[in-house]
Write a structure and sequence with these properties.
Length: 457
């Protein structure tokens, strides 16, 4: 059974691809393999690696512009998740009734693999990687794609997996219509990227709930019972899928919960019960207990053995740039959380460490509401070192909560200031709450620069 509910998309003709990143180039290769006449267009520059790939595959492309007259001839358009709905070209395509879809939607038509799809404002990458790790250890022939790893479309074109674990962002979901997830997961919904949703939380929530569209009674919907916005959304967005909630606040008959002995209990209908003490998890902290519950529920649906699940949850090592321990120098721990590009991620990070924290934060502000961090900053943070161009709002938000807020001129400078302020037993935490595009290419480069600066202390 295809993972597209009812395909109405053209299966041949002129395919235009907007954006030549990982997803765009992958979609181009799949399109070529399926017999489309493919043209890739990027308004910015295309990296040398991707250009070399496109040339090798003999796929036509352009950079630094969109040839609108040409693109408007397309039978189908696959667009990068980074291009907003209100971009003039996207509006023109939609006005002309040319279907504009995401790489995930495009590729799902061509695979009958099971699709386990994970979204949420926080914890997506950790949960996706943990699930992938667990399934791999359980001997499942599994691919990893979406917001992470190699392009889904490229893997559908050139690999043969039985299952894909997909990390899915709201931007991807916005361009998904017929797509069907065998297992859909919403970890949590907190304000993020509101600049793309006209500053309306309900638009962002609606975007996240697109993950359950087209699900049938044979599919599963996994979600957090403790998350306010998700629970509000449940009453608005209905699905026939079997519900598997997870919670740390109550008991549930099916789903996942924590018992009085601090055991995570996972119960899925017609499968044996899984139990494991929270102390034994390799990823500690309240938020990681949620991530483990969500991954554990997927593993149960996949009928993994309890032993495999337990060993995986004990041995999994977190991904780079997410609460990554860099070094302990002079009794000070340095933590790289560069992937924390929103306020809620920073809240999680601060919650994970004991006082005293020197927090390095800042960058391109996405309309952040720093209010939710105030109490934690007051109780745990002894100084804030600002990075990036735009530091005014950080100063305004936290001037009453912490005695020291200092601007820095570079990552090297920020780390040096932080190490000067830190005493034995303190934690220096890079957790920016912002996008990285002012000083760095992406959050990975920001994290690498942080690690370099720490190692050169």
């Amino acid at each position: 059974m295809s993972n597209i509910a009812h395909t109405h998309y053209p299966q041949s003709g002129f395919l235009a691809i907007l954006g030549a990143g990982e997803s765009g180039v992958g979609a181009a290769i799949l399109g070529k393999d399926k017999g489309f006449d493919v043209f890739v267009s990027d308004k910015g520059g295309i990296s040398d690696d991707y250009k070399a790939t496109l040339r090798k595959e003999k796929i036509a492309f352009e950079e630094q512009q969109h040839s609108e007259d040409k693109i408007m001839q397309a039978a189908l358009v696959v667009k990068s998740p980074g291009i907003p709905e209100h971009a003039p070209l996207v509006k023109a395509l939609k006005a002309a009734n040319i279907p504009v879809i995401s790489e995930i939607e495009f590729a799902a038509q061509y695979t009958d693999a099971k699709l386990y799809c994970i979204t949420g404002s926080n914890g997506k990458s950790t949960t996706t990687m943990l699930t992938y790790y667990m399934l791999q250890r359980g001997g499942v022939n599994v691919g990893l794609a979406g917001n992470i790893g190699k392009s889904f479309a490229l893997q559908v074109a050139r690999e043969k997996y039985d299952v894909y674990v997909l990390e899915i962002s709201s931007f991807m979901l916005d361009d998904m219509y017929q797509f069907r997830a065998d297992v859909a997961v919403i970890l949590n919904i907190t304000p993020d990227h509101l600049d793309r949703y006209d500053q309306h939380m309900e638009n962002y929530v609606a975007s996240k709930f697109r993950i359950i569209r087209n699900q049938t009674k044979d599919d599963y919907f996994i979600y957090c019972l403790d998350d306010e916005e998700t629970i509000k959304g449940l009453s608005l967005f209905k699905t026939e899928a079997q519900h598997l909630p997870f919670t740390q606040k109550q008991l549930v008959e099916q789903g996942a919960y924590i018992d009085d002995q601090k055991n995570i209990i996972i119960q899925v209908p017609n499968k044996d019960i899984f139990a494991m003490n929270m102390e034994e998890l390799s990823l500690q902290g309240k938020h990681n207990a949620y991530n483990n519950m969500a991954s554990g529920l997927i593993a149960k649906v996949q009928e993994l053995r309890n032993q495999t699940m337990k060993e995986s949850m004990e041995s999994y090592v977190n991904i780079e740039h997410r609460l990554e321990h860099v070094a302990c120098i002079g009794g000070v721990n340095y933590i790289n959380d560069s992937k924390a590009t929103n306020v809620n991620s920073v809240w999680y990070a601060l919650e994970s460490f004991s006082p005293d924290i020197i927090l390095i934060m800042g960058g391109v502000d996405k309309g952040n509401d720093y209010g939710m961090l105030r109490d934690l900053v007051k109780s745990k943070v002894k100084a804030i070192v600002c990075i990036g161009k735009d530091t005014v709002r950080i100063h305004e938000s936290f001037e009453d909560e912490t005695e020291v807020i200092i601007n820095s001129s570079s990552m090297q400078d920020a780390v040096e200031i932080a190490s000067y302020l830190a005493k034995k037993g303190d934690t220096v935490l890079l957790s920016p709450a912002c996008a990285s595009f002012d000083w760095f290419k992406n959050y990975e480069e920001r994290g690498e620069k942080f690690k370099e600066a720490v190692m050169s202390l």
